[in-house]
Amino acid sequence: MARRSFEVRRIPGFGAIAILTIVLLYVPILILVTFSFNAGRSQAEWEGFSLQWYRAAFANEQVQDVSIRSLWLAIAAAGIATVLATLAALGTTRVGRFRGQTLIYALVNQPLMVPEVVTGIALLIFVASIKVATGYMGMGYLVAAHTAFCIPFAYLPIRARLETLDLNLERAAADLYASPVQAFRHITLPLLVPGIAAGFMLGFVISLDTVVITEFVKSAGQDTLPTYMLGQLRRAVTPEMNAIASLFLALSLVVVTAFFLVSRRRGA
Amino acid sequence: MRRRGGTLWNWLLSAPALLVLVLAASGPLVIVLVYSFLSPGNMGGVAWEPSTDAWFRLFFKRDIFDPEVVTWNEAHLVVFWRSVSLSLQTTAICAILGFPTAWFIATRAPHRRALWLFLITIPFWTNLLVRTFAIQELIRNTGTINSLLLRLGVIGEPIQMMYTDFAVLVGMAYVFLPLMVLPLYAAMDKLDMRLVEAGYDLYGGRLQVLRHVIFPLVKPGFVAGSILVFIPAIGAYVTPRVLGGGRTMMLGNLIELQFGQGRNWPLGSAMAMLLLIVVVAALVLYLRWANAEPEQRNG
C-alpha cells in the first residue's frame, strides 16, 4: 500500500463533521439576523431589504426601557464584582496556603456550580422575606444577585494574571523605599489592568446573559432585556424580535471580541 | 513568607466578595434546605411546622380517600426521567459532534487554531435566549424549515416540532455544544502526536488507533466536557420553557411551577435540593475520577 502522503492527524469523516458542526452553530443565528432585515413578516420568504423592524424596535418604549436597565445593571454588577474579585484575588494568590483558603475558593466558585434555577428560587425566597421585613422594592436585589453571579467570572482572569506577575518587581519597589500602597498603586495595579479589564468584560457579558436569576428576583417593572424577550417569546413573534436579538448579538460580539484582544495582548 | 501574620490580611481582602457571595448566593441555599422541611402556607410561603411531606411527595403520593394507600407520584417521576434522559441525550449528541470538531481544530496549523476556537467561542458568549430564539424561529410551525418544506412541496402540512422533546433536545445540544468542544480541544492540544504515529507504525488501523491511542489520551477532556454539558442541561430552565412549553417540562420548570401556580414552596424547595444533590453528586464523581486517573495511568 502506497502511503505517500499519509497524514497521521487526519481521520476520515472528522473534517466533514467538524465543518458541518460549525456551520450548524452559525446557521440559526445567521437566519435570525437575515430576517431582521426582511421587509415582510415571514421567517422564510425574503420580501426585500428593510430597516422597518429596527425602527420599530428603537421606537418601542418598553424595549428602550428594558435595554437601558440591562445595560446599567450589567455595568454596575460587573463593576462591583470586578472590584471585589480584585481584592479577593489579591488575598488568595501569591501567598502560602492558609487556613480557610479552600473555603474561599469554594464560596467564590459556588455560583458556577449551582444550577441557576436553584439560585433563582433561593433568592426568590430570601428576597421575598426581606421585602416583607423592610418594604424596599428597588433594584438593589438585582444588583446584589448579579454581582454575586459575576464574581467568579471576574475572579478567574484577574487571578490568572496575578499568578504570572513577578513578585520581584514589588520587592524591588520595596527596596526603593516604596510603601506597600505605593508599590501597589504604581507597580501591581498597572500590571494587573489587562486581567481586571478581562474580568470586567466577562462579568458584563454574564450579567447581560443572566435570565433565570433575574426572572425570579425582579419585582414588577424591573424587566431586563432577556426577561422581556422571554416574556415576548410566548406570544406571536414579529421580526421586531429578530431586530432586538440581532442588536443584542452585536453587543455581545463587540464585548467578546474586545475581551479576546485584551487577553491576547496579555499572552504576547 | 508572610504566613501567619498574612492570614488575617488575606481574609480581610477576600471579605467583601465573600459577604456578597454568602448573602446573594450561598446563604439563600440554606434557606431552601430549611424550607424543604416545612409545611406549605395557604397563599404560598411556608408555615413554620416541621414536615418531611415535601420530600415524600417528590416521589410518592397518598390516595385522596385512603391516606394509607401510597403510590408513585407519576407526574413528578415523568419529569425527573425526562430531565435525566434529555440531559444524557444532549451530552451524547454534543460528544458525537464535538469530538470530531475538537480534533479538526486541534490538528490545524498552530496559528490558525485560535481563529477556529474563536468561532466556537462566539456562540458560547452570545445570549442563551437569543440562541434559543434562533432555534424557535427555525422549527416553529410557521418557521423557516416548515415554510421551506411546504413551499418545496415536500410536506403537505407543517411538522409539529415545537413543544416536543425533540425541540428541547435540539435546543440544548445547540446551546451547550461549545462546552463540550472546549475541554476536548484542550486535551487534544496537549496530545503527543508521536504516540498516534507510533500506533500507525505498529500497524494499527485508523479505528484501532482512535480507540486504543487517541481516545484513552483525551478521555479527561471528554469527561470534563460531559460534566460541563450534563450539569447545565439537567438544570435547564430557559430552553425547555421556550421550546418545550407546558407539556415537555423539565425539572427546572417543575420547580418554578411550585413557586408560581403550584404555590407549594416546601415541595419546590425539596425539588431544588434534589436537583442540587444530582449536580453535586455528578461533580463529586467527576473530581474523584479526575484525582484517581493519574495514578491509574502510572500503575
TrEMBL record, chain A:
GO CC list: plasma membrane
Protein's UniProt keywords contain Hydrolase: no
Annotated localization: Cell inner membrane; Cell membrane
GO biological process: transmembrane transport
UniProt keyword Cell inner membrane, yes or no: yes
Membrane topology: Multi-pass membrane protein
Function (record text): Required for the activity of the bacterial periplasmic transport system of putrescine and spermidine.
This protein's name: Spermidine/putrescine transport system permease protein PotC
From TrEMBL, chain B:
Entry keywords, A to Z: Cell membrane, Membrane, Transmembrane, Transmembrane helix, Transport
Subcellular localization(s) per the UniProt record: Cell membrane
Transmembrane segments: 12-38, 86-107, 114-134, 166-186, 221-239, 267-287
Residues in ABC transmembrane type-1 domain copies: 80-286
GO biological process: transmembrane transport
Record PROSITE patterns: ABC_TM1
A single cellular component GO annotation: plasma membrane
Principal location listed in the UniProt entry: membrane
InterPro entries given in the database record: MetI-like (IPR000515), MetI-like_sf (IPR035906)
Membrane topology: Multi-pass membrane protein
Assigned protein family: Belongs to the binding-protein-dependent transport system permease family. CysTW subfamily.
PANTHER family referenced in this protein's UniProt entry, alphabetically: INNER MEMBRANE ABC TRANSPORTER PERMEASE PROTEIN YDCU-RELATED, INNER MEMBRANE ABC TRANSPORTER PERMEASE PROTEIN YDCU-RELATED-RELATED
Protein name, UniProt field: ABC-type spermidine/putrescine transport system, permease component I
Lineage, top ranks: Bacteria, Pseudomonadati, Pseudomonadota, Alphaproteobacteria, Rhodobacterales
